[in-house]
Structures are given as C-alpha cells and as structure tokens.
Amino acid sequence: MKTLMLGNEAVARGLYEAGCSFVSSYPGTPSTEITECVAKYDEVYAEWAPNEKVALEAAFGASVRGKRSFCAMKHVGLNVAADPLFTISYTGVNAGLVIAVADDAGMHSSQNEQDSRHYARAAKIPMLEPSDSAESLAFAKLAYELSEQFDTAVLIKMCTRVSHSQSVVETGERVEPAQKPYEKNPAKYIMMPAYAKKKHPVVEERTKALTAWAETAWINRIETGSDQSCGILTSSTCYQYVKEAFGDQYPILKLGMIWPMPEQKIRDFAATVDKLVVVEELDGFIETHCRSLGIPVSGKDLFTEIGELSQNLVKEKLGGAVQAGETLAEDIPARPPVMCAGCPHRSLFYVLKRLNVTVLGDIGCYTLGAVAPLNAIDTTICMGASVSGLHGFVKAGGEECAGKTVAVIGDSTFIHSGVTGLINIAYNESNSTVIILDNSITGMTGHQQNPTTGYNLKGDPCTKIDLESLCHAVGIKRVKVVDPYDMETCQAVIKEELAADEPSVVISRRPCALLKYVKHPGAICSDPEKCKGCKACMNIGCPAISMVDGKAVIDETLCVGCGVCEQLCKFGALA
Predict the structure, then answer these.
(1) Is the pTM for the entire model greater than 0.90?
(2) Beta-strand (E) ranges in 429-544?
(3) For residue 350, what are the CA distances in angstroms to 23, 365, 372, 488?
(4) What is the pLDDT of residues 226-282, one digit of tens each?
(5) I need a labelling partner for 475 at 20 to 30 A (CA). Which of 122, 206, 213, 439 fits?
(6) 530 in Cβ contact with 571 (< 8 Å)
(7) Cα gap 302→185, rounded to integer Å
(8) At what angle do helices 193-216 and 75-91 cross, to 10 degrees?
C-alpha cells in the first residue's frame, strides 16, 4: 500500500517490517517520533530509557539475547551513548542492532551543530543516510541485513528535513525472524584487553569488507545527466536540493551508505566528468574522503560549513538561475520563542531574578528563562551540566558564591544525567542549592513520559521514581517542595536554602500547563479602571498579557488563570 509518511514514521515502519522486537530510546528532536511511532505496533516492545547511554546498552542486551533491536537519539544524544557505541563496534552483535541518530543542521532545537558522520568513521561502524521517507523505510530494513551479515551495529543518520518531511512510501508485511540462540562467548562479548586486542583486527577487516560491499550496493547509485562538465557527489537532503535545482542536467553519484564510502566507484564517476563537486551540509566529510583518494574536488570552497543548504544556494554556487522569492507587503513582527502562558517555570525564574542569584541552566523548555524579560540564566551547556557545573562554580568561588548561586534542571533531565552531579555535590560537599523544575513530563520534545511521571511509553502505569526520596538517598538532607505559582513561598524557601550551610534541593512542582489532564480555573480578568500602566505584570513575559492604550490586557484565549500576574499587580487590576 502506498501512503504519505514522515521520515521518522517511515523508519518506524521499516523497523516493524524488518521484525524488530525491542526498542529503547531517549526523546530528542528531531528523532523522537521514530520511537513514538514504533510504539504503536503491538508486536514491538518499546520504552523510554533514562538516557541515551542506557538506551543503547539495553538495545545491545536485547541483540545479544537474540532479538532484533533498535535505539534512537538526536545528535547530542550520541555523545552520551558514545561510550557503549565504540566498544559495541568491537563485540559485534547477535541479532541485528540498528541505531538512528538525527542531526539538526540549522540548530532548530539544539545547542550545537554536530555532524554525526564522524562517529561512524571514528567508531568504525557503518552508517546509512536516507534522503526521503521511502529510503528511510528501505534503509531501516537493509540495516538489519547488514548488521547480521557483517556482525556489526549499523547507524542510520537522519536529519531535520528528512525526519520531519513527508513523501510517498510503499508499506509491506512484517517478517519476524526466529530468535537467535544466545551462546556464551567470552572472547566476543567480554572486552577486557586480552580479548579486545584480538577484536581490533576483526573490525578493520570488517571495514574493508563493507567498503567492498559499498562499491556495488544499490543504495550508492549513479544518475546520468546531459551535461558532463560537472558531476555532483551528494547524499541525504542535499540530494533533494540538487535534484530540485538542476533536475537531470548534471550526473549525480548519490551515496546511501555514508560510511564506509566506496573508493573505486567514486574514482570511476570522477573520471566521467570535467569537475567533481561535493554538495553536503556541515563538515566536508565526503570531500575529505575524496581528497584522501587523491581525487580533485570542490566542496567547502563553494558551500558553507554552517547551517542548512537550500535549492537556491545550490543553484547560486553552481551557476544556475536563482529564482527571486516573493516578499509580503507588510513586515511580520518577530515572534521569539517564549514559555507558554501558565508555564510553571516562569514564576520561579522571576523569583530567581528578583533574588539576583547566578543561575546555571540546563537543557529543556525552561532554557527560555534565559531570554528577555526574565534574563535569569547564566549558562546552558548540555544535559545535567547545571548540577555538575554548580559544584565546580561554588568550589571555585568559595564564600563569594555561597548563597548566591543555584542550578535549575527539569525532572526528566535530572533523571537523565543530573542525579550523578547531585551525588558529586553530596560526596564532595559543596554548599550548593539545586532546583528541580518538576513539571511532570518531558516537555520540550512534546510531552513524553519519563521515570518520574508514573507512566511508561505506552501510557501504562509503572514505577514512579520519587524525587524527594532519591535526593535523600544520595546524601542530600535538605529537600523542600514548593508550588511555583506561590511566588512568596518560593522566594522564602529559596532564600532559606541559599542561607543553609549544607547542600540542598528545592523541587518546584507544578504540571506543565499544556498537559491535557491539567484543569485550569479560567482566565484572569483585567480592570482598565484600576490599571495604572506600571507594566509590572509585563516583567514575567507572559504571552497572554499585552499593553493596549497604556493598559494591561489579558488574552482570554491564552490565559490559564495561574494567578502569577495577579501577585505582581499592586493595584488589584488583575483578578
């Protein structure tokens, strides 16, 4: 049956049709929907893991036990999973193991631009790179064949434009292979030095065999063109840009396996054209490979290493006619990202700003506490870094930082990698105050469950991790819970914990305002007669509040009635 699918949805379908039985992932845009979609198939066990390292290790365990398994993450998540990834390259697999990593060129929802192709080369693990939904489905199925044929995990590299765009796919039936028997094999699965030394040569030979496979693989294809003056070597979404820009004008070598890449196939293709141009996003990965083969090539001398490419940019750099876009008659006001109306994090950040403390932030929708008018965050690095960084900041700053610095971290992020930083605070005794922003969900990636919510990926009730007990268990004696909508109490508790002479945790607990089951009291009403136009209510940056003719106005379609603005108004104009 032919149907439209998102790239991520198509990967999930490919996993299903290939007989994948076990999926463990951590949500991260633009990869999240793969796991959400595959969880809809009853034949596949699917879960959210606390972090990407745990997810990959769990998937590896399922592979060793004989079931085809899968793990998905975004590009920065692969950093977290890199530890098992590099050693799994040595052990190989039993049943097929496929790992999807989704890059975010353009940083639509990420803290850096990172080219995951380098991981494939560094870990010596094959990587496939689809360019549309049909290939996403087909490559997912192919990945299992390669995994079991070459005894290796296989990476599938997605990107924002492929993950979140739709194209036509043709679905098939599920074919679930028999479970492979597990046989105890210390030399294969125990990577102590004596065994690992013997596995490295095996990995190198495997790379040679995969390179030979890539020479004739159907996923590395040559498309003829009418103009041999230029040949284009490309992959992924850049292939789509090239086709839209030039159609069949230039010959194209389209790579579906991005590592290891063929060698003779590229040489032969280069020999048929006057010049070879590599069109790829971010780093000159393919270009470097070509140069290592001694092939003259253009690439990053034409195209940027920063951000996404486009059809017009490809046309411009390769001498095509660039079509001018149309402009609107009126300028559209900028709409910077902002925390939602009623977001429980907003009032907490307002309190922190009022207390004039240094705030080490973390990864989540609460990172928006860094923007105006709150401007309440000083650093944001990676998952869990707020807690670990706070310890170092306080140790380095001594008395100067005591009582003046906090870390903020979400509930899901705390479980992901914040708890280890808190253990470090307790163990090495820094006088640090950590604020856990518990909104009862993994918010930024679209409301996924996590170990603190009491529900699993399928929505079934499960074990709920008690944050208070966990903090006590790692050695934190002072643990307080506050409602962020109650700003006076929040401020009093935070001041008290900052004044304490030992580590402490404040849990700011209030569900995300967008959760379907959260009931709201109704919109706040504004009284123009009482409003003095002081704009105190504007200091929290709530999108439901605006100033019209010098008076505060509440948008009833946005306001959830959290009451935070009411606490700021000294004239009773908001109630």
Answers:
(1) yes
(2) 433-438, 478-482, 504-509
(3) 40, 15, 11, 11
(4) 999 999 999 999 999 999 999 999 999 999 999 999 999 999 999 999 999 999 999
(5) 439
(6) yes
(7) 51
(8) 110
